Every structure is written in structure tokens, then in C-alpha cells.
Amino acid sequence: MKPLETIGCGILEWVPCTAGTFGFELRDGHETCARLVWDQHRRSMVSAECATGRWIFRRSGFVYPRVAIREVGARQDCAVFTPRWRGDGALELVDERVYHFRPTDFWWTRVAFYGSRVEKLISLDVRPSDKAAGASAITGRLEILAPGRSCPDLPLLALLGLYLLLLRRAEAPAPGPVPLIANAPTS
Fold first, then answer.
1. Maximal C-alpha separation, the chain
2. CATH number attached to the domain at 4-171
């Protein structure tokens, strides 16, 4: 896989995996930079990998939902994403770094991760695909912005951002603003 850190600023494409599993690959042209694949037996678990790391995302909680992130083979979580009632939220790493996830427009068609100094690091969007069919009939884009190039957690933010955007899309009953977690109040 091509390391995300070597790409610099620019736009990459999320495309459905071709390997017969439900997942997505992040591509720079024809080169794969990252992969996100859902576990066939436990739909709340997703494996995420890139050239510089491998993680497991595990969604849990009903009243107090969260997404725990663990490096493959580790016994402890390395980060936790905690959504607010609107679906935006904060990613807190064990070393106390914090990133904020929120929409960049009213309809949640684009989302972004922001650093602690309120600078936008990356932005993501998903849209219907004209080539794919079925559950993975969407593609997406990842835009790495100048402040994101130097972010030490760029690969994790890129993978988690798509995961959160797809969760939100899957739980949306209709187009429009909806919470990240289906049972959260809507206002």
C-alpha cells in the first residue's frame, strides 16, 4: 500500500472493494492507500488498514454510544470516538490528542476532522456510484488539506472519517440531518 503521508495535499477516491467483501479502498489513481472492511459475522466491527497501521473499529453502546479504536493485536483501545446527540463528536487518543468530527454543510453531505486549533485537516464525502450496485453502490472522496499533511494521525482520521460517514448514511431514514446513532434525539 502507498503511505498516505507521501501524498501531500490532494483528493483521493474511496471505491468499493473488489474482493467480494463489503468494504472500501482509498485510492490515489490506481494505487491503494488504505482499506476499510466490515466483519462478516459481527457487523459492529470493521478492520481498517493502511501502510503505517492496522486498527479495529468497534461500535458499542445504546444510551451512551461510542466507537472504540484498537490497534490490531493490542489489548487496550488507542482511541475512542464519542458522538454528540447531533452525530458530530470528538476522537480522543490515549495520549490526550483530540480531533473534532463535524459536518461542513447542513445536509451532512461533507464532513471534516478538525485539529485542536480549529484548522480543518481532512474532508470527506460520499455519493452514489454509477458503476457499483447493491450495498456498496457508493463512492467517496477524501481531501487532504495543508494542515492535515503534518498530522501524525492522518491515516486513522481518513479511515475513521469514512466509517462514521457510512454509519450515519446507513442509519438515515431519509435525506437530511439525522443523528449518528439511530436512537438519539433529533432536536
1. 43
2. 2.40.160
Strands of 9-65 (E only): list them.
Answer: 10-16, 23-28, 31-38, 45-50, 53-60
C-beta of residue 123 within 8 angstroms of C-beta of residue 8: no
Q: Cα torsion at 43, 45, 48, 54 (round to 10°)?
A: -150
Helices (H), 63-172: 146-149, 154-171
Quote the cell numbers at residue 75: 489489548
| pTM higher than 0.90 | no
Q: Which has more confidence, 153 or 9?
A: 153
Torsion sign across C-alpha atoms 73, 77, 78, 81? positive
Residue 60, CA distances (Å) to 46, 69, 90, 157 in order: 12, 11, 16, 19
Residue 151's φ and ψ, nearest 5 degrees, are -70, 125
105 or 77, which is more confident: 77
Burial of residue 173, with CB atoms counted within 10 A of its CB: 0-12 exposed, 13-18 middle, 19 or more buried: exposed
Burial of 35 (0-12, 13-18, 19+ CB in 10 A): buried
Q: Which of 11-15, 23-27, 74-78, 181-185 has the lowest mean pLDDT?
A: 181-185
Which residues 6+ apart lie within 8 Å of 161 measured at CB? 101, 111, 112, 113, 122, 124, 142
